[in-house]
Hints:
The chain has 4 helices and 5 strands, in the order H-E-H-H-E-E-H-E-E. The chain has helices at 2-22, 42-48, 56-64, 89-94, and strands at 28-41, 69-72, 78-81, 103-113, 116-126. The N and C termini lie far apart (72 Å).
Amino acid sequence: MKNKLFMVIATVILSLSYAYAHGDEHSEEKKESIVKGQLIGMTCFVKHNSKGSSHVDCFKECAKKGLPIGILTEDKVIFQISGSGHEDPIKTNKKFLKYAEEKVIAKGETFSSNGVKMIVVKGIKKAK
């Protein structure tokens, strides 16, 4: 009986230790990065694979409502664009409307957690 109880307690402790050690898989510290790719409306891209010149008007409509936008890199990684701190997404997105569905080069702080990548853009320009 004592052996069974010991095994149960040991299993629980080991399980909790493993979960604590791996945390939320926050794999990267924030760092300055350059991200190159296509500016996309994330909702339409993820749901319908919509992107490109035929999607510019929809991108703008969604961005003006505060829906998420991001940069799709050539190797199919998406960086969601975030404002600084708790900035209103409508205000953040407004800065990027002129780049809708364009190839861009963005410089800013990148973050990663649980498979989600984000960038707080400090500078952006059209890619050549």
